[in-house]
Amino acid sequence: MAQETTTRERDETTHRFVGQPTPRSDASAKVTGRALYTDDIKLPRMLHAKVLGSAYAHARIRSVDTVKARQFPGVEAVVTSADLPAHKKNPSNRRGIIFPDDEALFFGQPLAAVLAADPHVAAEALALIDVEYEPLAPVVDPVEAMKPDAPLVRAPLHDIDRSEEQGHVAVDLESGNKEDRPGNVASETPFKRGDVEAGFAEADVVIEHTWRSAMVHQSYIEPHSTIADFDGSELTVWTSTQAPFYIRDELAQTLGLPENRIRVIAAEMGGGFGGKIYLTELMVSALAMLVRRPVKYVMSRHEDMLAATPAPSAHITLKTGMRRDGTLTALQSRLIYDTGAFPGAAVPAGATAIGGYYKCPNLDIIGYEVMTNKVSVGALRAPAAHNATYAIECHMDMMAAELGLDPLEVRLKNAVEEGDPMPSGQAYPRIGLRECLRAISESSVWKRRSATKAAPNRGVGLAVGGWLGGLQPASAVCCLNSDGTLNVTVGAADITGVNTSFQQITAEVFGLPLDRITVTYGDTKTAPYAGMSAGSKTTYTVGRAVKLAAEDARLQMLEIAAQRLEATPEELETVDGEVRVKGSPDRAITFARLGRWTTNFGARYPAVVGRGAISATKAAPGFTAQAAEVEVDSDTGEVTLTGFAIAQDAGFAINPLSVEGQMQGGASQGLGLALWEEMLYDAEGRLLNGNLLDYRLPTARDLPPIETHIVEVPSEEGPYGARIVGEPSIVPGIAAISNAVADATGTRVTDAPITPERVLRAMGKI
Amino acid sequence: MRPFGYYAPRTLEEAVALLRELGEVARPVAGGTDLVAQMKEGRAKFRYPDMLVSLAGISEMQGIDFGESAGLRIGAGTRLADVAGSPVIRDRYRALADGAGLIGSVQTMNMGTIGGNICNAAPSADTAPALLAYEAEAVIVGRDGRRSVPIEEIFKGPGVTALEHGELLAELRLPAPVPNTGSVYRRHTPRKQMDIAVAGVAAVITVESGVITRARLALGAVGPTPFRARQAEATLEGSRANDDAFTRAAAAAANECSPISDVRGSAEFRQHLVRVMTETVVREAVLAAGA
Amino acid sequence: MPKQIINVRINGEAHEVAVEPNWTLLETIREALGFTGPKEGCGTGDCGACSIILRGPQDERGRLLTSCLMLAPQADGAEITTIEGLAADGTLHPVQQAFIDAGGVQCGFCTPGMVMAATALLDSNPNPSLEEIQRGLAGNLCRCTGYTKIFAAVEMAAQRMRSS
């Protein structure tokens, strides 16, 4: 099975719980089918919603005739924009819109809903709604859309709300929203440094290529699903989301309810990867408020592919120059991201990735967020970074090859380190890019490289990737129970096993076994605040709050114990469920006694409630280096992965089992984007492959076991030095595969996914 | 799925009578892996049925029988997993085992039937090229009793077969294998499994004293129906079994296919695949004939 | 359409349930009978999250199948095992335990189907190679793990089942 290593700076023996591979606390419920996801929840009198999607990518809606649908037996309501109170009108962002009043902007955009107790009835009645469309010219290609004479995707935008993107990544933004100029460009992100022309002039090799990467779907296995219930005063929403507090805030603004009367409960979630922030909650809440009955909406897979928030395609032109000694001298790039019918593509993150991995004195980067009549996009694990990384990481290999240099050495020579500027000018804190490169050079995939390359049609490709991560405040509460066990409550949805890491952190603070600690995700009414579980920041931020809460609760316990043990708190320690005097293990009080003393009738001490709250201001960027080993069938163009290795800087792996899982999972998604995944649209803007047969996720047959190398370069603020983990692993996959295919065949594929047909075309065989 | 009525006859006779009585609003269903998926997403290539007649409980449609002289009989209701796993099919009709064993997942093969794979009449049906190359006969049951039709005459177009309404495919009969014969089916898909053939090639080749005495080639997913590559067969028959012959057959096969461009691949790509895969498949079948 | 009565045994317990012909077996198990283990990820047999083991009246042994593609009346007379029926007397099945121990579970949505597929594989092949594991699980998509730890879990379960 795959090799696993951890490269640590610190002493292995200092920690008992953090740093140990720990099975997830929720795994037992998940392997028995007991874990409850949104669609597993049923409420009395609940209605099912089915939603009608636009049959055109761009059309004026002349009328929506619902008479026949309303008369269909079993139908409780048919709802169009005319039936809903005026929410935000002509919103610039999709999250302010339920059903459009008069203009459909993408194929599959929700136009109306049918509610019935029986979902089959609702589905049947849906077919009876008669929409009269006036088709308008759809704008499908983003490059065409930028031309001055291109038809407009939609009416001009105002006040673009960027709050969702900012949950994923904290880039210093100078980008301007171009709402003042009617056109299809929603925003521009320019980054400049030095003089690129001078930089190219001093280079010994200058190359320029265009790199295209497809629109792709997060493809969580659980489609979007939401239940809402409104009792006339309070709104409760159960939903599959990464962002319960964000949803609460948005619903409050749009529906005009105070935040204290909205309870958003993040149910167990079947995958999100950036795509489950806020989508169907507004519609379902509005429907529930209208009919005063609980309403459930579960997207079909087809609907999810048509009308959720997939990730943008990109068209990136890159020109780079390098001196004979391998020094990068200049980088110029124009990045075009297709954001679909509403803004939302994280272009600044792409522009940061393309110029942010290497020291380069001369930069000229411009990123465009371009609208088209396609579904609007959202985040997918390090949004926009994989597209940009494809370009820069192929260029590094191509320039190294032209100069006869080793691809790993060239990267080491130029790799950014602490203090170097990002494209925005912001300086990097301590990072582990070089350490990742050194670790990947020790992987079995890289070490057997010469033997691999000796075989025909086989090759190895290297690529790096990085991600800044997001920053948001976080908080946690830690309470002592009367039997000496501990309850920790957080408001962050657990999407990656963070609750297990929080359990380990609490165990470490107290020296208490894991089974004596329970971590509970609360909801927006019962839990202290946490930012969205996105931007790789949950352990980094909420973990810090948990540690503070545990330390606070422990101190409260020590202070009580100190009075009874006739010692100062500083003289005490917590070991195996007891507070002891250091050096005198006989002088001890069990946590259970402390629990009783702080909870029972007439107890003389206040209940122990530890509080932890932080504001996160320092990014802890995560880097990764990956090596792909492939065999290319020169007859069919088929690329077979024969090995894959990933090294990633986790700062400190609180739960190495989870960290490896995040590395392998992200890497597998990068490989999906590299080889198979692509949303295909026709000239009319209709999705052609909205199912999991024709939108090809990698199967168990397609991926080899993925070798992991955890690198630990501590962050400044993260708990025990942990830094962001979730996202970097997806970033370099496409580039690593393109480089491996080039190594195997001498042929460069510049369009992703790197399909057999594209390989054959690049080889000149068709 | 929109509502429909459901019947589960126990015999072929009963099923045929039911289908006739219910009329064209009724449709037979076997494993359901293709039909139910199509009905769900409203992307059915056929009129949405008011009635489904399940063939799953009809025992006379089940089973695999083999005799050295009689050849192979496969009930149309036999599951793909049973076809792919049958020792006699693996041993004597390798290309058919190859094809049946490539369809979807373990789950698909545990539900889907060989009759369903044929009657859906997808140009990409993975058992079709092998059945064509073995010159299988389709036994069809209708109101006038049984008739036997060469499998080649079954496929009329994408999703269209020669079966009239009220007729059912009861079984497939494959002639006894000729000695010194090898057979292979290969397909190209972007993923290694869970995918639809972009091109598929089956070959059944008899070699005597280094000479190809009989060649049957069939192609899938590169025309409106799976079909026999007769020009390619002609280039092989009578030739010595060498690289030159394989190359000529490959060129002929590429020449006689008429693929379309769609989301799964361009026409050019498919034609290229037919050429390179035919060469490989014929070579492997020749090797198998020797073994 | 009028409802039809079907009789099924699920995890050893007999159920008589009135179904409409256009209900899938998955809907019947989840909505009519209240099980939550089998999941709907795609509805078209492409993801495997709804996988169960079913033994029909004519079947010699149980078969792994996608319950989203089976019509409810087609299951009449069947014995069905869902993920809820794997653990015996409160002890997890070795495959379930190995998925926990090896880190084969992340979001958990594919897990019930994946565990059923792994169980069906080991029932017929107690000592599978990596390639046989990959073939056996190819109908079950997992988006979180990249499969590596799932392969490790199946190997761990196989090893434990052989040695016990």
Q: Low-confidence runs of chain A (pLDDT<50, min 5 residues)? A: none
CA-based gyration radius of chain B: 19 Å
* Oligomer state of the chains in this structure: heterotrimer
- Determine the strand fraction of chain B and express it as a percent band: 25-35%
Mean pLDDT of chain A: 95
Gross morphology of chain A: globular
Assign the structural class of chain A, choosing from mainly alpha, mainly beta, alpha/beta, alpha+beta, or little secondary structure.
alpha+beta
Gross morphology of chain B is: globular
What's the mean pLDDT score of chain B?
96
Helix content of chain B: 25-40%
Main β-sheet description of chain A: 7 strands, mixed
What's the total count of β strands of chain B? 14
Q: Output the strand order for the largest sheet of chain B.
A: 4-5-10-6-7
Tally of helical runs of chain B: 11
Main sheet makeup of chain B = 5 strands, antiparallel
Describe this structure in a few short sentences.
The complex is a heterotrimer of chains A (766), B (291) and C (164). By secondary structure, chain A is of the alpha+beta class.
Question: Would you give an account of this structure?
Answer:
The complex is a heterotrimer of chains A (766), B (291) and C (164). Chain A is α+β, with helices and mostly antiparallel strands and 766 residues long. Helix content of chain A is 27%, strand content 25%. In chain A, the strands form 6 sheets. Chain A has a 7-stranded mixed β-sheet, sandwiched between helices. In chain A, strands 8-9-17-16-15-10-29 form a 7-stranded mixed β-sheet. The model of chain A has no long low-confidence stretch (mean pLDDT 95). With 291 residues, chain B is α+β, with helices and mostly antiparallel strands. In chain C, a hairpin with a 7-residue loop joins strand 3 and strand 4. Chain C is of the alpha+beta class. Classes of the chains: A alpha+beta (766), B alpha+beta (291), C alpha+beta (164). The interface between A and C is large, with 59 and 59 residues.
